[in-house]
Amino acid sequence: MAKNNEKIKVIPLGGLNEIGKNMTVIEYKDEIIVIDAGLSFPEDELLGIDIVIPDISYLVKNADKVKGIFITHGHEDHIGAMPYLLKKLNVPVYGSALSIELIRVKLKDHRINNAKLNIVGSRDQVKLKHMSVEFIRVNHSIPDAYSIAVHTNQGVIYHTGDFKIDLTPIDGGLMDIHRICQISDEEGILLMMADSTNADKPGSTMSEKSVGAGLETLFKKASDSRIIVATFASNIHRLQQIADVAKMYNRKVAVSGRSMVNILGVAKELGYLETDEHIIDLNDIHKYKDNELVIITTGSQGEPMSALARMANSEHKKVEIKKGDLVIISAHPIPGNEKTVSKVINFLLEKGADVVSSDIADIHVSGHARRDELKLMQAFAKPKFFLPVHGEFKMLKKHAELACEVGVREENIFIISNGDVLEVDRRGARKNGRVPSGRILIDGLGVGDVGNIVLRDRKHLSEDGLMTIVVTLSKEDGRILAGPDIISRGFVYVRESEGLIEGAKDIVQSVFDNCDTRKIREWAYIKNTIKDELKEYLYIKTKRNPMILPILMEV
Amino acid sequence: MAKNNEKIKVIPLGGLNEIGKNMTVIEYKDEIIVIDAGLSFPEDELLGIDIVIPDISYLVKNADKVKGIFITHGHEDHIGAMPYLLKKLNVPVYGSALSIELIRVKLKDHRINNAKLNIVGSRDQVKLKHMSVEFIRVNHSIPDAYSIAVHTNQGVIYHTGDFKIDLTPIDGGLMDIHRICQISDEEGILLMMADSTNADKPGSTMSEKSVGAGLETLFKKASDSRIIVATFASNIHRLQQIADVAKMYNRKVAVSGRSMVNILGVAKELGYLETDEHIIDLNDIHKYKDNELVIITTGSQGEPMSALARMANSEHKKVEIKKGDLVIISAHPIPGNEKTVSKVINFLLEKGADVVSSDIADIHVSGHARRDELKLMQAFAKPKFFLPVHGEFKMLKKHAELACEVGVREENIFIISNGDVLEVDRRGARKNGRVPSGRILIDGLGVGDVGNIVLRDRKHLSEDGLMTIVVTLSKEDGRILAGPDIISRGFVYVRESEGLIEGAKDIVQSVFDNCDTRKIREWAYIKNTIKDELKEYLYIKTKRNPMILPILMEV
Q1: What torsion do the CA atoms of B87, B93, B95, B100 make, to the nearest 10 degrees?
Q2: Could you give the percent of chain B with pLDDT greater than 70?
Q3: What's residue A390's pLDDT?
Q4: Residue A180 host element (H or E)
Q5: Range 318-337 of B in CB contact (< 8 A) with A
């Protein structure tokens, strides 16, 4: 009993066998800490769903143990679930200045104003009874990203967070390799969890700085054009580089897109972005010549409502694409977005713009370590046990194989699933049991109220629409007093199919005509008969299966 | 008048600024011919739509002129609209033996048995009054693919169809370069239309034969494994190569997936596929050891209902994936399918299979010419005028630039849209006018009956579901006799939201209570008031906007 209590439990609640909603629980004795609380964006089949967050019922059940949430960095897939988590569990939150500020903005939208937000620096430690949680700087596609080392008397649990090794970082902040090595030497890293996003990609990810050179080449060539650059709002180093190149070529910078404007504000305020008077208001772009302008915009993923998509569709109020404009898409399409990005590019080209995307120029780099960097990380940390995290199964598997290659013993490497409990102590590690886990769907204000039945109905409605049949019956003798009335939506264009609707009414009428009078009062029977007969009729006539909703009323 | 009549009209009805539904009209004097009649698969936003075909109203209007449909090859994007076209316009159809057989299968499904199908060979000409239509062999990812030369007294209109230049084709049938050169020399090619699919890809597409070598390498290594190969059913040369390598390694071949079984039957019957007793029934695979088996399957695009996806999800009745299986995906994901393919791969890996896809081994080649081949085609044909076809705008543009590079005069190159009329004769070419064009949506048996209203409703229903409100009123005094009854679907899980439904009932009741008695009879007014008030109520409560359907009845 006491012995079991000495084991550290590591429980991923999100981020395994998926991209997104990263969240990891570490439990030791009577203390629980949570690393990250991210969201993921819904897959296509989750109709109408806004975002997806991890199931946190294990944390709610053990609320008294939870000592804090420790944030690696400020991307949505690491902080997006914070408002939902804090509503249930108002524990202290720790993260870098930028992470905390981005959380603050998010909480404001949710009208949460009692959160206990704490800014920490690199090498800062938050000391608990049995654990001490240390933040260690890494490089990533957002400034101020940390990995996290949890010191215990059993050894250190090290979580890399999302990272890359950028030897020429924009802000001069190298990954703190020294500290990782030091911990490994002095205490030993018992278990490492590491970012698997690019575990199937050979070599090393290029430095963010290489993007600057790529941009400069394009700016140089396009000396007569207005330049529009689409990128991720949160990549502040990218924004810095665009602003720097703009300045070099005497161009003013204007910004379009709500998230881009917001983050620019935060970044300037916190001093993450060095800019000066060459940032102008988007309303003032008409005061400058084309070759005096750069517009930085959202929409690098082709999102239909984004600023770039609106420009491409001539729906942007302030920016009209014209012949000669150079549009630079400084991003890769995230898997699943290839078609929307391609659509936007086609529209931009049709309007006469030149479009340069990252497949033909060096204008984007990933924020995630590739295989050579992952091997370096193994060399720094030298973990005894290894748990690949953050990735689909194929990435986790590749990462496990890589760890094996560089010398981690095969039996010390674990590929597990969200909700699995990995128990680890000085003597060993093993998968032992599960806790509740899964995805909670957020739709509007609803948290988890959209389940499989609602989704199944939405899918049904989306494919074939519906037909509602209303009949009012007499309470006395069950005869029809009004109806059958039929209303359909999303099924057929009614004017073209009057015969079909009339035929459907006849079917319903005949159900009543042919019904044994004793059964008139068995509404379930009548409704099912109407459903069955209409379904067959409509399928024969149209090869479609609308949802059929019979409604009976009695007066 | 007579002069205008001498002009040849070239009218693309599909395939421009899009991938798919290829169809080109050529009209000269009182004769019209149609090259191809393809379908495209619906984009995500076309909810519930099965397939999309071109608008053929121009052909229907000019039915007396239409002399025939000339098919380049048997892919769906070239023959998929045939049943719909022939139902309106039963004109003769010409194509290769394979194309015609695939059309015959398709027409059978549609119970069309009076089609005038004609098999033609390479260099065969179909002579009309003013045009003579010649079929010229090209290479593509389906056997027996033709380009089409239309001979007229103004010169030749040459349509490459989909093509690549495969110098080591599987069936020995080289593209008929000689005939193209001969026509160019003797008659001159007035206008060329050419496949733009790979116009943005440098170099040349590899020979289909290279795939055989890639497969052999994998078969050699996996000497203990069962091998499963997923590929496109219509790529019969690919099937031949898989069968050949299987034979080399003493493996029997079984086939899974309806379209794969069908096409294998057609191909064997017509002699396109040389196989012998080493093809076995899928029911007999248990009689063989793993290393004596190859299973060829559909599902290379991750289609959810395909045989491979069913294997990955443990839903396949005859094939269960097990540790050690080698799954070879001999295809590239078509843009938009990346995620579904990735999902299938993850499931296969989780079951312990090894998966090799075309990004890590030479096991797939495209059927479309890349830039070097497109330049060769320009060199063979030496067209005076050039019209890039088959591709999104960005591809058409790249193809136009390529033509310019190799010497076609810029003013002789046309980037036009579906429905545009390109008039051409010996003296010149120009865009002149438009004919009706667009997409016709097929949903079940409905051809074009699903329009924007139905699609908008489906989208609305898919995102937030619906709420139906039924009230029965008295004819005499307008008071409520029954209801309000409320039924919702796809909105919220009702058990969790009884208060919400009760609240909604109260709102509806209060609309009646507060309504001026004179207005009770104005149903449009009442319905709109119910809609508005419920909409606001539900949005405040849920931040969702279900479709609201008020139904009033009178007895």
Answers
A1: 50
A2: 97
A3: 97
A4: helix A177-186
A5: 335-336
Structural domain boundaries of chain A?
2-203+366-447, 209-357, 452-554
Q: Quick check: is B195 catalytic?
A: yes
Residue A233 assigned ligand-binding role: yes
pTM: 0.90
| pLDDT over 90 percentage in chain A | 80
Q: Is the pLDDT of residue B57 over 80?
A: yes
B452-554 is a CATH 3.10.20.580 domain: yes
The answer to whether A159 and A72 have CB atoms below 8 angstroms apart is yes
Query: Which chain B residues are closer than 8 Å to A446 by Cβ?
Result: 492, 542-544
Spatial separation of the C-alpha atoms in residues B230 and B297, rounded to whole Å? 5
d(CA B401, CA B381): 17
- Kind and range of the H or E run holding A136: strand A132-138
ipTM for the predicted complex comes to 0.88
Lowest mean pLDDT among A50-64, A377-391, B145-159, B514-528: B514-528
Measured between beta carbons, the chain A residues lying within 8 angstroms of B454 are 465, 490-493
Average pLDDT over residues B185-206: 96
Q: Using an 8 Å CB-CB cutoff, list chain A residues near B554.
A: 482
Of B162, B163, B158, nearest to B174 (Cα)? Answer: B163
Greater confidence, B450 or B161? B161
> Across the A/B interface, how many CB contacts are shorter than 8 Å?
193
Cβ-defined contact of B458 to A462 (cutoff 8 Å): yes
**Mean pLDDT to the nearest integer, B39-61:** 94
Q: Does CATH number 3.60.15.10 belong to domain A2-203+366-447? A: yes
Whether A553 contacts chain B with CB within 8 A: yes
Q: Please, is B108 exposed, middle or buried when counting C-beta atoms within 10 Å of its C-beta (0-12, 13-18, 19+)?
A: exposed
Residue B466 contacts A, CB cutoff 8 Å? yes
* Contact by Cβ (8 Å): A14, A38: yes
Furthest-apart CA pair in chain A: how many Å? 89
> How many other CB atoms are found less than 10 A from the CB of residue B250?
9
Annotated binding site of B for substrate: 233-235, 364-368
Q: Which residues of A82-119 are buried (b: 16+ CB within 10 A; e: fewer)?
A: bbbbbeebebebbbbbbbbbbbbebbeeeebeebebee
Q: What's the rounded Cα separation, in Å, for the pair A542 and A536?
A: 10
Pick from A116-130, A439-453, B509-523 the range whose average pLDDT is largest: A116-130
pLDDT score of A1: 41
Q: What is the pLDDT confidence band of residue B415, given thresholds at 50, 70 and 90?
A: very high
B130 noted as active-site residue: no
DSSP B439-469: EEEEETTEES---HHHHHHHHHHHHH-EEEE
Q: Are the Cβ atoms of B468 and A468 closer than 8 angstroms?
A: yes
* B153 and chain A in contact, CB less than 8 A: no
Q: What distance in Å separates residue A409's CA from the closest CA in chain B?
A: 20
Confidence at A3, pLDDT banded by 50, 70, 90:
low
With bands split at pLDDT 50, 70 and 90, how would you rate the model's confidence at A422?
A: very high
Mean pLDDT of B412-438: 96
The residue with greater pLDDT, A150 or A264, is A150
The CATH classification of domain B2-203+366-437, taken from the options 3.40.50.300, 3.60.15.10, 3.30.365.10, 3.90.580.10? 3.60.15.10
- Tokens linked to A555: 């007066």
pLDDT exceeds 70 at position A294: yes
So what's the pLDDT on residue A346? 96
Q: What is the pLDDT of residue A4?
A: 57
Name the token pair of A220: 């140089």
Classify domain A209-357 at the CATH superfamily level: Metallo-hydrolase/oxidoreductase (3.40.50.10710)
Task: Give B392's contacts in chain A (Cβ within 8 Å).
Answer: 342, 346
How long is chain A? 555
Cβ <8 Å between A470 and B465: no
